[in-house]
Amino acid sequence: MSSEPLLKVQGVETYYGNIRALGGVDVEVHKGEIVSLIGANGAGKSTLMMTICGSPQARAGTVTFDGTDITRMPTHLIARRRIAQSPEGRRIFPRMTVYENLQMGAGLDNLKYFNEDVEKIYTLFPRLKERQSQRGGTLSGGEQQMLSIGRALMARPKLLLLDEPSLGLAPLIVKGIFEAIKKLNKEEGLTVFLVEQNAFAALKLSDRAYVMVNGKVTMSGTGKELLADPSVRAAYLEGGHH
């Protein structure tokens, strides 16, 4: 592991109006890692993802990416530094075809790799290839999630932010999506920061993880350590995942 993390969040505080959503968060993601952030609904996980992308901007603290302070940078310039996000709720373009959605994800400077990149996505998610001329809005939830991840990957990111990729999906689909993430990490060395309510799946997949409660990080450790931790098990893993 390189000494300097690819992503470093230090003392970040984020507000919605006067309401403090994040209260001094510290998180690091090193190159080549899969790191997850788990916690209950409303803990501030998605707010942290959005703060990393500059909307909303942190009111205190710093966000450093690849050695550059991006705390006050506008969102489009942050994206240009090759941070790609597959947001919560997928947010694909419903009236565009699968292929057009993937086109929207490609950065202007990556167009020479476009066909090669599309083929890579189709290999990763064969369902998207079958549906390439279908409108995004007509896809199933699982297919839309694959498309959202695929579109983010078209930007050739150094860091992929995944916000709740398993939300509302059947367990089998979730398994496929997590396997795809693992494959990208192993074969391409893709760095992934994952926010996930399905704590069991996230911790199994992750090198390291953080637990967030009420806008603060309360615990961190390897995925294995947190899976084995009694308090984590009691709070997030009870209910059949043993």
TrEMBL record:
The keyword Transport applies. Residues 7-239 form the ABC transporter domain. It comes from the Bacteria. One of its GO terms (molecular function) is ATP binding. GO terms for biological process: L-amino acid transport. Keywords: Amino-acid transport, ATP-binding, Nucleotide-binding, Transport. It holds the Pfam family ABC_tran. The keyword Signal does not apply. Belongs to the ABC transporter superfamily. This is ABC transporter domain-containing protein. It comes from Ciceribacter selenitireducens ATCC BAA-1503.
